[in-house]
Amino acid sequence: QDVINRIAAGEVIQRPANALKELMENSLDAKSTNIVITVKNGGLKLLQIQDNGTGIRKDDFEIVCERFTTSKLQEFEDLHKVCTYGFRGEALASISHVAHLTITSKTNKDVCAYQAEYSDGKLKAPPKPLAGNQGTIIAVEDLFYNMNVRRHALRSPAEEYQKISDVVSKYAVHNANVGFTLKKHGCNCDVKTPINSSHKENIRMIYGNSIAQHLVDMNLSNDTLQFKCKGYITSVNYSVKKFQFLLFINNRLVDSQSLRKCIDAVYQTYLPKNGHPFIYLSLDLNPNNVDVNVHPTKHEVHFLNENQIVEIITNTLEGKLLESSSS
Ligand code: ADP
Ligand code: MG
After folding, report:
1. Predicted confidence (pLDDT) per residue in 153-170, tens digit
2. How far is the CA of 235 from the centre of ligand 2 (A)?
């Protein structure tokens, strides 16, 4: 049974960066305003996330790592309206099957924090009290220690760290009201954004001044198709080597091949060969029109009226680029 659980868990948690994405989403669901991430050896030795959110009650320590335990979904019907990130109750359970997991947490109702270690979905011992601030610290150590093949299939720690940094950067830009810090253990911060910043300021801090200086606003909405789009795109006077596409739909980091391709195609008529844009778009769609990710590793998203919405966005974008090229 443990082996089966481990295989299932390995499908949910494929590499350090996607474990971290799940953990960041939990911190955001818990209404944190400050999130600090510490990484050792590309996240394989240690992946730690500390937040100042609502915390986990002592009584809930017993169940948070059981599969399909979630505090976020009341009825199956809710699945279409979920506004929290988590709803499957799979992340912590999965992590506990493929790593050494330690949770330390304090709610505002408790006088002290509690700490517990988990393995294979179960508490190893009753939570023990200790001093601490409100919020949660999740430490994931020795990821895939019990899955040799998976561990060897991963890239180098440097590449895994790159993927971590990429996903943290995107969440940090999008969640401008939340402060994010990412650091390698014992080193200076690689990503740092303050609480209550702006999207543009965060782009500047994370992706650099030159991108930030070439940003054009991208705001549009359409009542008939029930969507709103906000964000920034780089003007035609600027390009990056690799297409940077930060796409959030209803606050979830997703990918849309159709949108990605159409946007890059528009830029190709303006940018030098091998030049690409930086794009940050936050799309709000009627939740009933979006196919929610039913699997944690599926980022490709589809939505109702996709072709029309993509067309309207690309047309607006083209207009903006024309404006920016003539000014
Ligand atoms: P889900 O997010 O789908 O509910 P998870 O396995 O990711 O499932 O988390 C299980 C439960 O643990 C959550 O529903 C939540 O109650 C609790 N939890 C996890 N992380 C945090 C956190 N950082 N702060 C507060 N509660 C948390
Ligand atoms: Mg979750």
Report:
1. 888 999 999 999 999 999
2. 36
